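INFO worker-7 received task bundle
INFO bundle size: 2
INFO processing item 0
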Amino acid sequence: MENAPAGRVGIWDLAVRICHWSFALLIPTMWWTAENGEMGWHMRLGILLLALLVFRVLWGFFGSSTARFSHFVRGPGAVIAYFKSLSQSHDPVIGHNPAGGWSVLALLGAMIFQVVLGLFSGDPFDGATGPLNDLVGVMTADTMTDLHESFFNVLIALVALHIAAIAFYLVVKRDNLVHPMVSGKRSVPAGLKGNAPVPAWRGIVCAVVAMAVAYWVWSGAPPL
């Protein structure tokens, strides 16, 4: 683990940053493809998003320290205490703060729910169906299709809240949260420890598992 004097330390590993910016790119792109009838691309991008989500969940258990759920998921008391401390000055948080941790869980959960709905959605008579559409009945597929369209508004609301929080920290707290998510590093006072990395093979294994799951789903989830 990095323990440096006042200066720049590692905060986010490459895997976390790739996932973060891929999510930021995929969500508006998938909205555009759906709105413009590019359903072939919409479904391909949906499978890519599924692979990234599976990887990010695995990385939340086996990744570097700040990527792990155990590092940033805190109880309600910690979240309330953090909100109360916003009016005061405090040292930069290494990783997600208690409130940001729950924001990450909400966004990941919403994206997973949206993708799962999409996998079963569609109408075979229109020629646009998710790869798991034939595993459910017509009425169930119709319900999931409607939810897939309407729940997107919930996802956008969570994204908007996320962006608003970033803007708050930038304007009010004078804390740029975007730059560390690009560079992976940030300046901290002396004594604060940076992110603890893990061997690269863990990322490779997680990526292979994620791609295998995505390919299996894309193939219609045949019996193993």
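INFO item 0 finished
INFO processing item 1
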Amino acid sequence: MDTDDDIDLERAKKPAVRAVSWMAIVGAALGIAAGLLGATVFTATGITGADLPPLNATPSPSATPTPTPTPTPTETSEPGEPEPQLFAESDRVPPGQRFRLSGVLPSAADGTTLQVQVRDGEGPWDDFPVTTQAEADGKFETIVYTSRTGERGFRIIDPVSGDATPEVRVTIG
């Protein structure tokens, strides 16, 4: 005769072990399905790991630009010649978010390497670690990102001739 004290412990554990096992299997299946769905959504929207910039473990102020002496931009516009122009995709972006700089430097020949420069406040211009190529008629476009916050000025300069676009101000943060 069995009493309450004589419960078969192994027999009582089986339903609990079975329930926990099924929960683990269902959880894993749901996790895999959610991961595949998320990857499909990111791929369909064009966001892939290859498109993202490398992230440092400790945030640093953009690749510490080094001041370099640059020729003073010349104002050699002749009447009827288009003026240099620079446009930022947005005048305010979060730190680390990419944004587009585009414009025209009419004196730059097709294929000329143009340097992006940056400055904080009214400080000196520093080379930003990004270059772009001029297309026909001096048109250019590039994408930059920085994690250094504050209002920053950007311009594009032809390092050989010293010709530069006007400054465009972007607030980071």
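INFO item 1 finished
INFO post-check item 1: The domain at 85-172 is CATH 2.60.40.10 (Immunoglobulin-like).
INFO post-check item 1: Confidence is low (pLDDT under 50) at residues 54-66.
INFO worker-7 idle
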